[in-house]
Write a structure and sequence with these properties.
Required for chromosome condensation and partitioning. Homodimer. This is Chromosome partition protein Smc. It comes from Shewanella saliphila. By secondary structure, the chain is an alpha+beta fold. It has helices at about 35-45, 125-130, 150-155, 155-170, 170-180; strands spanning about 1-10, 20, 75-85, 100-110, 115, 120. A hairpin with an 8-residue loop joins strand 1 and strand 2. The protein has a domain at about 1-125: Rossmann fold (3-Layer(aba) Sandwich), CATH 3.40.50. The longest helix has 12 residues, at about 155-170. Strands 2-1-3-4-5-6 form a 6-stranded antiparallel β-sheet. About 20% of the residues are buried. The chain is built from 5 helices and 6 strands. Bound molecules: adenosine-5'-triphosphate and magnesium ion (MG). The site of adenosine-5'-triphosphate (ATP) has 14 residues, from helix 1. Adenosine-5'-triphosphate binds near residues 12, 34, 38, 39 and 63.
Length: about 180
């Protein structure tokens, strides 16, 4: 599975609709301080269901919406779409046969988030469940930032196990069992 494209509109500094293609196996985002490099990573994490404003470097969830600049007024909605290539069928369930998966999230100033999977409105849970066990969740190892490696090395056996279970694809089943037991 590979991230092919990110489309942003109204998200943080990306006020105008912006498409970022990732055509090669390895891409780098470069630019001066404050140009929006980390905002791109925040966008990926946000779409995959991140629910902590702090993890998106803000105080509240609506801080992801473009807040205005000296030249532009604030706007009321932010939206980001991630397009994944799924030709190896890594996703479970009904989406396994799809060549391309689009995941989209929108938020308005009332903090209402709306999620879409291949254009169809869905729940946040549908997205987290879809990516669980693939290594792609908001806090999984697909996003390695400063400090992630040392945190891994220093983690306790129980914490390390969480990563291994995600890599092995069994976290999805553990989550389902937990839900069933709680019913
Ligand atoms: P560095 O190299 O210092 O890490 P960076 O390229 O990662 O920089 P980001 O942190 O992605 O930069 O972007 C910061 C910019 O995004 C700031 O100029 C900030 O004003 C702008 N920004 C963040 N949130 C919003 C928002 N809600 N509305 C408008 N601009 C925003
Ligand atoms: Mg940065």
């Amino acid at each position: 599975m590979r991230l092919k494209q990110i489309k942003l509109a109204g998200f943080k500094s990306f006020v105008d609709p912006t498409k970022i293609p990732f055509d090669n196996a390895l891409s780098a985002i470069i630019g001066p301080n404050g140009c929006g490099k980390s905002n791109v990573i925040d966008a990926v994490r946000w779409v995959l269901g991140e629910s902590s404003a702090k993890n998106l470097r803000g105080d509240s969830m609506t801080d992801v919406i473009f807040n205005g600049s000296s030249a532009r007024k604030p706007i009321s909605v932010a939206g980001v779409e991630l397009v994944f290539e799924n030709s190896q069928g890594r996703l479970a369930g009904q989406y396994a046969s799809y060549q391309e998966i689009s995941v989209k999230r929108q938020v308005n100033r009332d903090s209402e988030s709306t999620y879409f999977l291949n254009g169809q409105k869905c729940r946040r849970k549908d997205i987290t469940e879809l990516f669980m066990g693939t290594g792609l969740g908001p806090r999984s190892y697909a996003i390695i930032e400063q400090g992630t490696i040392s945190r891994l090395i220093e983690s306790k056996p129980q914490e390390l196990r969480v990563f291994i279970e995600e890599a092995a694809g069994i976290s999805r089943y553990k989550e389902r069992r937990r839900e069933t037991e709680n019913r």
